[in-house]
Design goal:
The radius of gyration is 14 Å and the shape is globular. The protein contains no helices and eleven strands. The model has no long low-confidence stretch (mean pLDDT 97). It is mainly β. A hairpin with a 6-residue loop joins strand 5 and strand 6. It starts with a strand and ends with a strand.
């Protein structure tokens, strides 16, 4: 199993960024893809998830209206797009494969390598 993310991005405040995550080695539509970020000196922050099978999304309230998750099943690639970037969005962004065990329990088994997004004028 591999999750391979796109390269580092530098954006101005107010711009948008789109990060990709190409999955291989498993059935892409059988597992959620979550997006998690880590700002400098901070802990991990969950942004939300997408079900690649039907495109259903679940966004953390903090990002609603500013983030969009998509999944292309033809290429087994998930995307996160973040708009209206602020300096506080500077972070490493990770895609993660989530294994849903039950309605109450899931875990992460594979992570992408991370994509550095820097927002600076």
């Amino acid at each position: 199993v591999q999750l391979v993310q796109s390269g580092a991005e530098l954006r101005n405040p107010g711009a948008s960024v789109k990060v990709s995550c190409k999955a291989s080695g498993y059935t892409f539509t059988s597992y959620y893809i979550d997006w998690v970020r880590q700002a400098p000196g901070q802990g991990l922050e969950w942004m939300g998830r997408i079900d690649p099978e039907d495109g259903e999304t679940n966004y953390a309230q903090k990002f609603q209206g500013r983030v969009t998750f998509t999944a292309d099943t033809s290429t087994s690639t998930a995307y996160v797009e973040l708009n209206s970037l602020k300096s506080e969005d500077t972070a490493v962004y990770y895609c993660v494969k989530e294994v849903l065990v039950s309605s109450y329990y899931s875990f992460y088994d594979y992570w992408g390598q991370g994509t550095q997004v820097t927002v600076s004028s």
